[in-house]
User: Fold these one by one.
Assistant:
Number 1:
Amino acid sequence: MAFRKVAKGTALVGVGAVATVFGLSQLSQYRKKHGHLVAVEALECKPLKMQSTLPSRESQLQALRDTHEFDILIIGGGATGSGCALDAVTRGLKTALVERDDFSSGTSSRSTKLIHGGVRYLQTAIMKLDFDQYRMVKEALHERANLLEIAPHLSAPLPIMLPVYKWWQLPYYWVGIKLYDLVAGSQCLKSSYILSKSKALELFPMLRKDKLVGAIVYYDGQHNDARMNLAIALTAARYGAATANYTEVLRLLKKPDPKSGKSRICGARCRDVLTGQEFDVKAKCVINATGPFTDSVRKMDEQEVPNICQPSAGVHIVMPGYYSPDNMGLLDPSTSDGRVIFFLPWQKMTIAGTTDTATEVTHHPIPTEEDINFILTEVRNYLSCDVEVRRGDVLAAWSGIRPLVTDPNSKDTQSISRNHVVHVSDSGLVTIAGGKWTTYRSMAQDTIDAAVEAHGLHAGPCRTVGLLLQGGEGWSPTLYIRLVQDYGLESEVAQHLANTFGDKAFEVAKLAQVTGKRWPIVGKRLVSEFPYIESEIEYAIQEYACSAVDMIARRTRLAFLNVQAADEALPRIVEIMGKKLKWSEQKKKEELAEAKKFLYYEMGYKARSEQLTDRSEITLSPGDIERYKKRFHMFDKEGKGFITILDVQRVLESINVQINESALHEILNEVDLNKNGQVELNEFLQLMTAIQKGYVSGSRLAVLMKAAEENIHRREKISVDRSCGGL
């Protein structure tokens, strides 16, 4: 108690000093400015009208081709580009947006899933008296509150624990976190608080106990990033923006300015990636919102322009949900190399990341084994020794490219800008770069402001503060109950639909097929352990999904949660899409192959395969080798040195267990390293070594063979469902 009083006293001194320097005058000025903006909007703006029906992709492409001239053409369908489209169209500007891939296919779907102000940036602002960093944190905290308000179905506050292992750090961190609350002001989500050691372990029982002093808990927001991005783009489309994914820009169009004679950008030559058809989109202003690809579009404008983007790769991993509490995250403020690591519950799994390493710009970033192991090592440092952190428990892994930028408007063009940068070229190209997910709306506002000024566009004021995104208007925390009662959906599925589609969940439920069971009445799952149902695939096509990768990565999040589950769901997803989109058999095969390639390289399957290869060393003890040989020979009765599907079927039939041939083929294929249709003894021993070392977990063949051995005389049924097996 005495220590807590001392800590609080220390904190009050720190809070008072920094608040005097940074906070009070700026807080008052910010609120006056924001209040004035809202008052102007209320007085001057006409009510916005949203279309009840989402235009089809074909009609959007038709609008791009047929419109004589748009006011604004935005290149890039990530969070910032989609935010620009929504900002522009709600100001009354004739707006177009094109995206080469799918909405949120790049960095915007590969974030840490946090909506935050940036605790570490506030620390820098205080330690270095950096007013720019302070303003950036303040802006982000305002945007955090706005994002939680406009998409309540996709976002929620999340408590995050900062464990403390040294006594002197407790008041130090407590002051910093309390300042974070203070800067947020009236938009503070919930007040931070100190926990004793026992209370911290009660809330986060997986935490390392030894030397733990206590913990501090603060609040930030969390969201479904890809779905949030899509909601922004769909909302813009419903307000009248012509938005089209899978539409790439081939080159920028230019014409001479009649007044100055200089060449000015007047649109772009575009190509529908799906059909190959090319067409021109004319616009008074073109905005470059392409994230890591900022420089490639800038060079379309001026070939000799210097690069401003300095890409950095951030790797995340997903582990089973039992690694973290359901509603408590963890922050490691100082890793072994000075980075910050978050360890967060997300979609009933646990997400850990991120790294920060220089990289090349690529459409297909790949997570490296080095980065995966770095994250695992840091996680081990904070979790109890009772929890074995296994490499095999990594269910998915991905890399996102963060587009750090230098400011071309600054005299110091070598210095990395921590904030976003808006630049207008001599030919009129407006580039928005840098920034972070949380501040997408203010970035879009600054960009459209710059475009309106540079091109003399007639537009109203920004109207996106407090503007609800699609699905948010009719959502409530109890909406899922109506889905259960009205349609007969499982409670878990109903909650998922409500928290993904908001008030549009009823449209998805209407498409759900009857299961033929007593319960649930409707809603066939794509895979047993996740709440995604088949009708989501049909509905996603209406929301511009065009490929199987769109479905597993962004319309559902299967690829980000469990790549094995995503792989299992793919055949059914392709079948449903093929029927709706009238794909040929060849097209179905191509989609399946492309999606498997995506899982293999970009979502961690490649890293998984490297854990178990035909060159893997066998390091089992002699006793273990004999035991596993005996188990293997129970299936290999003829002493061939390998087992096939027929061998497994024979043993299972002897104990009255039926597993269909396709399932058995999948089970053996997981271990068949040389892909010859059989599992050799050496491969089996390599598998058991990998399991023993924690490199592989949840192998269905290993579970099946062990269960068969134990139950050969008892004739018990053997489960072959995946047991949270990882990469």
Number 2:
Amino acid sequence: MNCADIDIITASYAPEGDEEVHATGFNYQNEDEKVTLSFPSTLQKGTGTLKIDFVGELNDKMKGFYRSKYTTPSGDTRYAAVTQFEATDARRAFPCWDEPAIKATFDISLVVPKDRVALSNMNVVERRPYPDDESLVEVKFARSPVMSTYLVAFVVGEYDFVEARSTDGVLVRVYTPVGKAEQGKFTLEVAAKTLPFYKDYFNVPYPLPKIDLIAIADFAAGAMENWGLVTYRETALLIDPKNSCSSSRQWVALVVGHELAHQWFGNLVTMEWWTHLWLNEGFASWIEYLCVDHCFPEYDIWTQFVSADYTRAQELDALDNSHPIEVSVGHPSEVDEIFDAISYSKGASVIRMLHDYIGDEDFRKGMNLYLTKFQQRNAATEDLWESLEKASGKPIAAVMNTWTKQMGFPLIYVEAEQQEDDKVLKLVQKKFCASGPYTGEDFPMWMVPISVCTSEEPTCAKMQILMDKPELTVVLKDTKPEQWVKLNLGTVGFYRTQYSPAMLDSLIPAIKDLSLPPVDRLGLQNDLFSLARAGIISTVEVLKVMEAFVNEPNYTVWSDLSCNLGILATLLSHTDFYEDIQVFIRDVFSPIGERLGWDPKPGEGRKVLLGMGAFRGGGKKKGQGVWGGEKRAGRLSCGVGDKRSGI
């Protein structure tokens, strides 16, 4: 079994209805984090009880069972004991079979100082004095459902809490450092709204009697979805009602939405093996936005998704050293390598595209089929595709395999020709590369769900097609010569679009008069800058379109635009054109600068645009890597500020 940093003192096995047999040897394979127990004779097959008496270490590694240092309001330094087991660190707390597919129920008891809070996945069923020491108590928790070891959790420390009941009767508590209960109220409000939303969305009830969300002082990740006891770094949970800005509230709401989604997708149904981790994280990274949009429609959160996740994933996936979303994991030590922006942000983006392709109703039906069929079990990516295929009647596996099993994404070139009252569109797909036009010997191809809208109805698709070949010609009926045509309504499809010069020119008035929605304006300018940086189109074409953004009122669009102009200004520094680009940028920014002024006005939002790009801190889940997808912390962000960056 798995075992790390643990010394076993004795072990015995008692077959059901038979005598106990004591182990005679313990062979530690430290490199593989395993121990083999040897017995004097062959153990009989069947049910029995394995008892292990062992000593472990309350470590300082911020993984396994570790100590977290905090300061009390009076200035004393103290320690809490907390856990972080994902991916493979339950074995540091107790010997176990530490793999996601080996599930069990857990009966947990903790012996703790009587003045400390003790928490675990389940509710407390008994708290009694510890017979050997009157300063201690034994806290016994209810038996958990069948679950994976990486989701087990326990916390011992000093905390205040605020509580509420969700509309479906689940007790929700938010635990904060002592004296900061007030700062847990926003998270409590979000969690109490989120649980019923997911229950209705999946049509599957939350399976535990309670959920605790707790702020941990020393936490390597941003948050961890332990079933019934979700742990967070303090910046991902606490909101000061007087001083926290809008972006902090939005980030906390997204992290809460993400971790609570895992209570169903990940905890109730768990990936078979770490190869399918992308689906676990990509799905939660998408649905967190759906949830926040439901709870706080005023946040305009989907426009921010495009800036924070979608475009970031495209930047990385256009590089020659990218990797497919789905990566085979051999040894568990490889797991941390795939906690990256491709798993999280590209994963979330292709799930968003899939949801749009299927339609919300059939997507929900498919999700319910999947969660009902595999609850308290394990599943692979293909099992979800099968359920969604059954619900929608569409070729989900064939489509999605082109997005998850090969790296990169397509560039769709489009040109239009007027034929009487119809427009004929010719589409060509090629792999998009940041280093320039693709010249590889193979011709990767994607099955691309493409939506087309026109100036007649900019927010509705006039046509939806599945492009399953390199070139495609389609006819848009009843589209007048003066009407503009745009691909990728809502910037949902994970591809870049290159328009013919005539089509691009026709879109400029729609940017200027704002008839093109914000998320489409953002996607269009981001595509243009990327195409120019890759040497596929001229920067002059991009700047001609940028002039149309003088009336832009949307923060997120400005944020992405300012970042892209900043990159261009940096490239032109120390050249003869630097003064000219500065004048151009001032001309673009002046109208919005004059409208906003320097002083806040009543009713204005509290976001801040910093110079040539926004900066945000945080870290959503696991802390490694240079950019913060959920499991990592840390990037200087261009755009709205990555929801998951932590520096």
Number 3:
Amino acid sequence: MSNSKVVYEGWMVRYGRRKIGRSFIHMRYFVLETRLLAYYKKKPQDNVVPIKTFLIDGNCRMEDRGLKTHHGHMVYVLSVYNKKEKYHRITMAAFNIQEALIWKEKIESAIDQQQESQAANGNKFQSFEYKSGMDNGRNGSSSDNESQFSAAEDEDDSNSNLLRRTTIGNGPPESVFDWTKELDSELVNQNSNNQAFARKHWRLLQCQNGLRIFEELLEVDFLPKSCSRAMKAVGVVEATCEEIFELVMSMDATRFEWDCSFQYGSLVEEVDGHTAILYHRLQLDWFPMVVWPRDLCYVRYWRRNDDGSYVVLFRSRQHENCGPQPGFVRAHIESGGYNISPLKPRNGKPRTRVQHLMQIDLKGWGVGYVSTFQHHCLLQILNSVAGLREYFSQTDERTTAPRIPVMVNMTSASGSSKRSHKLNLSSVHRSPSLDQIQAANKNAVLMDEYSDDDEDFQCADEEALPLTVEVEDKRAAYEEPKDRIDLSIFLGNLRRDDNDKSRDCWTLSNGNNFRVRSKSFCYDKSKIPAGKHLLDLVAVDWFKDTKRMDHVARRRGCAVQVASNKGLFTIVFNLQVPGSTHYSMVFYFVTKELISGSLLQRFVDGDDEFRNSRLKLIPSVPKGSWIVRQSVGSTPCLLGKAVDCNYIRGPKYLEIDVDIGSSTVANGVLGLVIGVITTLVVDMAFLVQACTTDELPEKLIGAVRVSHLELSSAIVPILESESAEPSKS
């Protein structure tokens, strides 16, 4: 590091694209000095040479590129470059908006200081004027222009007194009406040929759930059935604008906690950093047995204004990859969105005014024949503002800003529009489950902190390329090896059935249903969907006996012995359930070989103290009574610390006998579960906890889902003699 004063430093995401077109993100340590921006693999010490440096002067520009999708992950992207050296730039990103805005402000300030210094010394530099395509009222500070350089760069030096370095975007798409702006009569006249720009007049309709509900005043006495009246809800939320904005933009499971009208959402197409096409299913409670459910396909645009407020705008549109869905009525949004504005803090707590407007035609016979249908459903949608208020009022956690949530992509699962349409038609008969939404993206790509190969093979115009997820690349990244394990040779007494409605069976649980420590966990405590399992679950046994069943791997003909004969290695989890009748649920995870030096290999060959400190279980109850779900929870648990674990190391296997009855707490929960076990669907993921950057990200050993288990289906095993007992270490 140089001797210059450090202005700001910290971990950020290095964002770029390879020559083949795929994007990449790497965790890097960025350091901003008064005249220099640099980044390193690790926090620099002594005279460490940075990976890349960028000289800051008055000709530099700071571009806010908005939200980008990287294989399902949403990141907030910033780019700084020099106007005179067009291909010399650094592009960085953050998983939360607060951190991105801090870096944006610091870099802009450094650019302004260099401009002032050069002006004082009589040195001229190229400058430019910023103009917004919707430059009225408040100015937006986010760039919507996805080209690498704006046309304004070709201007002369006549505007050398401008200090702001942020590129201003071109405003929302033409079809989207920005209802948040107070437009004067001159602008109305200028745009009269495009759409009905006019000042809306409102009257207070009612107060509900602490919200003021307004209705649009119309100049006509009669409103045709094909037209809908705009309504908006206004409330105050004790949270920052950024926190509220991140929730409003979410389409994951978090939305269920504050939006009672939300059922499912998907990303259809990412147009640019500020505009996206979304598919959205509404959960309306107006006689659902009679009225067909509604869905939406709409364009969503957002921007951040100079005063710190956020604007999110909606308008329906058609898209080739999001056609009408059988069993749904396609509603139409004329205008809608959120206006999130900061207020003065009170008692040390942030306060934000949230306006939610919706002008929607729900279509169908209910709108034309039942006047209360549209009004009731619209109030339900607007009530999300009260949901936001209660969401934040019921928690004191403000220390860690949440990541920008992930959205499921409708088109990435198919290679063409036709295949995507078929997928939509086949999947519409049942609504996506909460697990599917939590999974978010089956092909989430992990960040590599220590590889700089991508930085040596970037395109010169990397930021000019559209950010798309290549289906072929995703398929290659997760392609199954040609020499897959033959699962047909393994057999357990509990059958496998992949049908969601099946009973007394098991199936594989999607690894993305579980969140594990990311590559950057040591720095930002972030977690990511787990992805693909390390081992294959080949069989499950369900045993019972009058005594506890230890070392079940010695049972003749079991999956362990079959795997050993084939030269395969097995990890066995024997979950022992105590009682008047003892039960054991046994899972067999198989792999061809353990990778030498890997965390899993060190776990298998380590001592019991190391194993107990690392063996982790992530439980979940997707289906069951509320009290059971609350008792079991979904918090990761270090099994070796919570209950007694006995490790039996054989020549080609490691068996882990987990005595659940050894813990009073676990035994109490188990007593609750056993009584209703036939009504439960239980997910379990096993993994070795990663504690250092070399071990991260975490990977699952395997995951399983057990559905509606019957106690009567357990069998009494015949265990071989313990005369030739393997090492218990």
